[in-house]
Amino acid sequence: MNKKQLIIIFLICVFVYACKKSDVVETQIETFLGFQKPANFPEPVYNLAANPVTKAGFELGRSLFYEARLSRNNTISCGSCHIQSSAFTQHGHDVSHGIDDRLGTRNSPPIMNLPWNKAFMWGGGVFDLDLQPIVPITTHEEMDERVDNVLAKLRLLPKYTAMFKNAFGTEEITTARMMKALSQFMVMCISSNSKYDKVTRKEAGVSFTAQEQEGYALFKEKCASCHSEPLFTDGSFHNNGLSLSPVNDQGLYTATLIATDRYKFKVPSLRNLKYTAPYMHDGRFLTLDGVLEHYNSQVQDLPNLDPALKNGGRLGISLSDADKTKLLAFLSTLNDETFINNPALAEQ
């Protein structure tokens, strides 16, 4: 076989490969199914009928999520503080770092399983996912921008007029459409493929180890009243006895002005804890060992302390070293590598 024949064969192979790759991409496009409820999850709270997820809407929402023009100086996007490899939290920071490296007062919460959320943010105040992005866009320590300025910037880009037309049938870029597009992306950030989920769905060949099973039993006994399955949060707000911080963040009280809501914060999901350190609303604990020891020995007797943490004369939840080891083993089954590596959720 001469050199010319080898070159022809090589070019044919490249062409066949390219065609096959194109076929794979085309198949992925054709099989976009929109929102699909995991079999072991309850019905979502979010009104999907009012904002059904379409391929064009999802892609627009994804582009907006990673768009730095949502911030005043075009440097900070939603994805800056919600990083996929950290289960959409801001890795390495106790509290969020926003525009001009300004410091917030709270840890960036993960963006996952939001269709089942009734309230948003550590301290509440927002009860509709379609309204939630307005808070970080306009907050001084986060994006420090005005929504009308964001819309003006987007209208200058042919990319976005085309994407809005594909998603909503019109090139007109409005606040409502921008918020609905962002919601279409965020409701698709579903974490439901951990080992726990596979065991719950009775998938073949997947089971807990003896230690994980013992940890699961302990979890149901000591933790599940607030971190209820399968979302591992009941979405409510509780005072969990943290010592007061210098900034005196009063949690839910800042939204309700009800005295009994002081120092209550939203119960976070326990999914993907491997990726979401540090922990608590202000990121005060760098490790899960620190979190468990807080509940074991460091709970403070505050006026609004959750009754579940008052056990006779003892505050907190009694946990031996063996208990902690078993609980950590179970909590590790809630990590979902498929979610944090899902290419559809990454910046394109």
UniProtKB/TrEMBL annotation:
Binds 2 heme groups per subunit. Binds 2 heme groups. Signal peptide: none annotated. Heme c 1 binds at C78, C81, H82. Keywords: Heme, Iron, Metal-binding, Oxidoreductase, Periplasm, Peroxidase, Signal. Residues 210-335 form the Cytochrome c domain. Its EC number is 1.11.1.5. The keyword ATP-binding does not apply. Heme c 2 binds at C223, C226, H227. InterPro entries: Cyt_c-like_dom, Cyt_c-like_dom_sf, Cytochrome_c_Peroxidase/MauG, Di-haem_cyt_c_peroxidsae, MauG/Cytc_peroxidase. It is found in: Periplasm. It is an enzyme of class 1 (oxidoreductase). PANTHER family: CYTOCHROME C PEROXIDASE-RELATED. This is Cytochrome-c peroxidase. The lineage of its organism: Bacteria, Pseudomonadati, Bacteroidota, Sphingobacteriia, Sphingobacteriales.
